[in-house]
């Protein structure tokens, strides 16, 4: 990102601060109609990208070029046009009313500038994915078999990619979520950082766990999980807690992508952690007619295992990378922690309002105002006008890349919907599975992950349940395990590549690549995959059956997850070489994913592999490979 010189720097900072302040204002008093809000959001945050992010390595580092100013104007034009014509755009019937030549010109400008902004500020891979999605709509009618689609005219492609507010595209529901709730959460997270809450978390992590290996990162995992179970939004959780935890993890030695991956994995897990479990769990109760309390009980062990696996992976990662405990001289006394303890109150306000079922944007609005007020109680945390301004600017800088990333994901979702691939998935999966339950589960898991490319957890789960539950029930799977299986993968979709909203948000904070961050988030969240399949094959994981069955199912998951995470990190009780890592990983995968082996056999296999890997590592002590 450029460090702008001259008057342009303050002007652009003022632009971003004003845009963030308007989002905060709307979060408290109410948003304008959806089209106008989405247009304002994109107008505020897409054009500045061309002034802040250079086009290539040789571009001017302290000022934009004339080409950048042309990109700025081109990016502003379509969103300004939609904002000015918001009423007419809202009233038009999608795919029925004419898509005028002016709309076609605006659509081309919006899509091309979005692709370039994505290439500059997010990553080229996402831009290419958007291009492939649009190209599929153009050539899908020439594709063979199940990939074949009806022909789309150029106008239909442009409309689906740009202006279908109810389904997808640049102006679809994803952009609406970012422009409303998530934007206000980003602002709250920025004010948390600006008020000194980051210092509070840093001191708390150091005081509570600084004497242990990777301790502050473990505190970050727990904090993200606890907050996530109340917020119900993985991206909002990343932004709120990641503003403090990711810099903390980087400071103690974790690489940026790893720190972002840890935060993303911990944040998405909040939706599977009782007692709240996010909005999708309430939807599950309505769909299944199963009491919410029963769902919470069935999900409890799996949620604990999910966070156990992340903590284990964090521990092995710290051991493998040689991240030692903090020196005693750097561990703050508890009185230093308590000096900032009042800054927890705004987070309590946020949690309370969300538990009382206030809207997320209003809860974040109230929490932001309370943060400014509570910070005034002590001189060390008091926010000056400059600090408030800088917090708004930082919020704007965080929102800009996220806005283009999510809008790009909207185009991908719109292409899948318009071509009918979402609806066709059910029939395709049933034919491919051919009566095999394991194959059906794998295909459904992949389907949910595809559906979750940018889709929020709740609609992703609803669509997946409509496609997959009837097929699972027809093959003898009980209703609740079928729903929990699909629910877990809908949650994990926010952290898995190629489009992972939570991982993208974490990457923007960590200053890391979104794809590598999402890959790390996937491996830290491996328990979501193992527990998801355990719901089908090991009912004890849902506290069903006798005590012995519950303990056996839990023990299998524990040893399998330890084996898999230790294999990837290259460390168990000592560094592991290539052979022990392969043995350990294979045994862990077999214990977690091969139900054909009896439960005691899977447990014994994983334990034996752990013992063998430890013995081989102790005997050879080679230099273990760094994880990918």
UniProtKB/TrEMBL annotation:
The chain crosses the membrane at residues 12-29, 35-54, 66-84, 99-118, 125-143, 170-193, 257-283, 295-316, 361-378, 399-429, 435-454, 461-480, 486-509, 521-538, 550-572. It is a multi-pass membrane protein. The keyword Transmembrane applies. It comes from the Bacteria. It is found in: Cell inner membrane. Residues 110-526 form the TRAP C4-dicarboxylate transport system permease DctM subunit domain. The keyword Membrane applies. Keywords: Cell inner membrane, Cell membrane, Membrane, Transmembrane, Transmembrane helix, Transport. Signal peptide: none annotated. InterPro entries: DctM, TRAP_DctM-Dct_fused. Part of the tripartite ATP-independent periplasmic (TRAP) transport system. This is TRAP transporter permease. It comes from Muricoccus vinaceus.
């Amino acid at each position: 990102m450029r460090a702008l010189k001259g008057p342009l720097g303050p002007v652009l900072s003022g632009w971003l601060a004003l845009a963030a302040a308007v989002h905060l204002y709307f979060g408290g008093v109410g948003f304008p109609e959806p089209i106008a809000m989405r247009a304002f959001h994109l107008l505020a945050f897409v054009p500045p990208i061309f002034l802040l992010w250079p086009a290539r390595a040789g571009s001017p580092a302290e000022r934009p070029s004339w080409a950048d100013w042309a990109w700025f104007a081109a990016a502003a034009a379509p969103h300004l046009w939609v904002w000015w014509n918001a009423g007419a755009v809202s009233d038009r019937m999608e795919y029925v009313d004419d898509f005028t030549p002016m709309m076609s010109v605006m659509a081309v400008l919006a899509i091309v500038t979005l692709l370039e902004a994505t290439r500059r500020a997010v990553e080229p891979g996402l831009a290419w994915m958007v291009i492939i999605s649009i190209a599929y709509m153009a050539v899908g009618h020439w594709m063979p078999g199940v990939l074949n689609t009806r022909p789309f005219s150029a106008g239909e492609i442009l409309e689906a990619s740009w202006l279908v507010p109810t389904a997808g595209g640049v102006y679809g529901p994803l952009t609406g979520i970012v422009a409303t709730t998530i934007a206000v959460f980003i602002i709250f997270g920025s004010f948390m950082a600006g008020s000194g809450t980051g210092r509070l978390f840093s001191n708390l992590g150091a005081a509570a766990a600084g004497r242990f290996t990777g301790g502050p990162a473990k505190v970050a995992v727990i904090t993200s999980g606890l907050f996530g179970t109340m917020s119900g939004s993985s991206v909002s959780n990343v932004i709120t807690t990641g503003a403090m935890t990711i810099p903390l993890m980087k400071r103690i030695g974790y690489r940026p992508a790893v720190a972002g991956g840890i935060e993303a994995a911990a944040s998405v897990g909040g939706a599977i952690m009782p007692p709240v479990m996010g909005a999708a769990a309430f939807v599950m109760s309505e769909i299944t007619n199963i009491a919410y309390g029963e769902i919470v009980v069935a999900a409890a062990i799996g949620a604990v295992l999910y966070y156990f696996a992340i903590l284990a992976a964090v521990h092995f990662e710290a051991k493998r990378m040689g991240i030692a405990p903090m020196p005693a001289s750097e561990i703050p006394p508890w009185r230093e922690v308590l000096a900032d303890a009042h800054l927890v109150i705004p987070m309590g306000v946020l949690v309370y309002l969300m538990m009382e079922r206030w809207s997320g944007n209003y809860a974040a609005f109230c929490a932001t105002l309370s943060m400014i007020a509570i910070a005034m109680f002590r001189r060390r945390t008091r926010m000056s006008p400059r600090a408030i301004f800088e917090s708004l600017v930082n919020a704007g800088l965080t929102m800009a890349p996220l806005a283009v990333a999510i809008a790009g994901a909207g185009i991908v979702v719109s292409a899948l919907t318009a071509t009918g691939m979402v609806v066709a998935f059910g029939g395709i999966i049933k034919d491919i599975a051919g009566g095999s339950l394991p194959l059906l589960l794998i295909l459904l898991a992949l389907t949910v992950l595809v559906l979750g490319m940018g889709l929020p957890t709740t609609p992703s789960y609803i669509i997946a349940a409509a496609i997959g539950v009837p097929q699972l029930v027809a093959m003898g799977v009980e209703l609740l395990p079928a729903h929990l299986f699909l629910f877990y993968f809908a949650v994990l979709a926010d952290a898995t590549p190629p489009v992972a909203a939570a991982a993208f948000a974490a990457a923007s904070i960590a200053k890391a690549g979104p794809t590598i961050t999402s890959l790390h988030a996937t491996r830290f969240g491996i328990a979501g995959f193992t527990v998801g399949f355990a719901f089908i094959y090991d009912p004890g994981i849902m506290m069903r059956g006798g005590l012995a069955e519950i303990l056996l199912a839990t023990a299998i998951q524990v040893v399998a997850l330890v084996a898999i995470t230790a294999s990837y990190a290259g460390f168990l009780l000592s560094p592991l070489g290539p052979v022990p890592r392969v043995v350990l990983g294979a045994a862990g995968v077999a214990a977690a994913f091969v139900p054909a082996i009896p439960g005691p056999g899977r447990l014994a296999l994983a334990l034996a592999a752990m013992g063998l890997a430890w013995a081989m590592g102790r005997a050879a002590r080679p230099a273990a490979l760094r994880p990918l």
